[in-house]
Amino acid sequence: MSDIGMSTGARAPKRIDDAPFLDFFSPEFQADPAAAVAAVREHSWLARTPIGVLVIARDKVEALLVDPRLRSSLLDFVRLQGVSEGPMYESLARTLLAVDGPDHTRLRKLVSRAFTPRSVEQLRPAMRELALALVERFAPRGRCEFMAAFADHYPVQIICELLGVPREDHEHFARWSNVLTWVLSLELGAHLAEVQEAFEAMSGYVESLIEARRRQPHDDLLTRLIEAEEGGDHLSLLELQSMVASLLFAGYDTTRNQLGIAMTLFAQEPEQWALLGRRPDLVVRAVEEVVRYQGTVSIAPRFTDQELMVGDYVIPAGTLLSLSTASANHDPAAYTRPERFDITVEREPPLTFGGGAHYCLGANLARAEMQEALAVLAERLSDLRLDGEVRWRPLTGIHGPIVLPLAFTARA
Questions:
Q1: How far is CA 204 from the centre of its chain?
Q2: pLDDT band for position 229 (cuts 50, 70, 90)
């Protein structure tokens, strides 16, 4: 039973100022976030941060993810970094990540049919065929830079094919999405000019593509989004542009980075990789363990417009709550030996895809893409190992390798 919103009995409620402080911008935290969180966990399930509070206990994170009194904080983050008006802000304000309540329910109903398990299952043969084709390009060489050789191409081609983007334009979306990643980080201000340029290029392309599909419908997701109807309601042009741009971005960058994380983990755990090669039936559990152990998204930020009683703390109105799905996925209260990466262990489902109204719309698609890719990679590449230094994106946003050099032995 959740203790959110409930009285703590005779104990006086704690204030945020009573919580331990954790600076997740500090070099110490960036160097070893797990150790910093573990130190806090000994005293509290909540920590003060420079921009609000961080919730680290699984039961609290899980309950708050579905709490309707919390709202998206995307636009708060964007305004904090100097973007409060203009086409990019208006487009972000119409995305599923930003809207709440009836507006969110309406948008989600209009697009959710494309991402049902049944719809995604139909894409698996194409996923496997693409993964095989990409692996065959570099497998004979015995080494590759994985992000450029595989991760940069695989998910963007899947989501572009699904939406109906012509194949010759796929790489444009990969390039734009790489830049637009900064929107979901605290680094937006430093990259604002390039983000604006990528946004304008993508928006112009998407608008032209929508006009083309209105004139000549195809058998693709974009046409279905244009034709989607719920009780006489359709997506407006701005909503269509925002939806298509956000689906292209989310369908590419998060899966791209999660694949890079997966291959890094397996290169560091060669016995687990060898086991997956021998036991392809473990691939579903392997993906769940990768996503639990190190998700490309580690925090689900939320905002409260009213005072809340959460456990033994009073959370004031106007507080940014960073719900640490990464910490929740490693909570010893929920997992046995959470620090161990083990694809054979059946565990509580990871919270990396979020929860409640904002549960990741593309979770089924992302899981299927990861499963098909890892099955092919483990079947074709043995003796996986790192072949140089891995360079990483910052932790304060979508996280993953920038450069991932791998070596391996190709199987026939």
A1: 25
A2: low
pLDDT digits (tens, 9 = 90+) for 361-392: 889 999 999 999 999 999 999 999 999 999 99
Tokens at 206, concatenated: 């998407």
Partners of 386 in the beta sheet? 406
Helices (H), strands (E): how many in the chain?
Answer: 18, 12
Indicate the pTM of the whole model.
0.91
**What range defines the domain where residue 291 resides?**
16-410
pLDDT recorded at residue 396 = 74
Average pLDDT in the chain: 90
Cα–Cα distance between 152 and 72 in angstroms, integer? 29
Confidence of residue 80 (pLDDT cuts 50, 70, 90): confident
Amino acid, res. 186 = L
List beta partners, residue 52: 49
| Sign of the CA dihedral with 227 first, then 230, 232, and 237 last | negative
Token pair of 306, please? 């009213």
Q: How far apart are CA 95 and CA 113, in angstroms?
A: 17
Domain presence at residue 7:
no
Residue 11 lies inside a defined structural domain of this protein: no
Q: What is the token pair recorded at 204?
A: 């112009």
CA 179 – CA 195 distance, rounded (Å): 6
Q: Which residues contact 392 (CB under 8 A, 6 or more apart)?
A: 399, 400, 401, 402
The phi, psi pair for 350, rounded to 5°, reads -70, 155
Question: Hey, what are 279's tokens?
Answer: 């036991």
**Tokens, residue 85:** 């008006």
CATH number at residue 234: 1.10.630.10
List Cα–Cα distances, 92 to 246, 247, 259, in angstroms.
Answer: 9, 12, 26
138 in a structural domain: yes
Q: 248: closest CA among 150, 180, 183?
A: 180
Token pair for 50 = 């420079």
d(CA 221, CA 160): 10
Percent of the residues in the chain that have a pLDDT greater than 70, as a whole number: 97
Task: Give domain status of residue 8, yes or no.
Answer: no
Could you give the dihedral angle defined by the CA atoms of residues 353, 357, 358 and 361, in that order, rounded to the nearest 10 degrees? 70
Q: Kind of pairing, strands 299-304 and 143-145?
A: unpaired
Number of domains the chain is built from: 1
Q: What is the dihedral of CA 26, 27, 28, 30, to 10 degrees?
A: 90
- Pick the more confident residue, 212 or 395: 212
The pLDDT value recorded for residue 1 is: 39
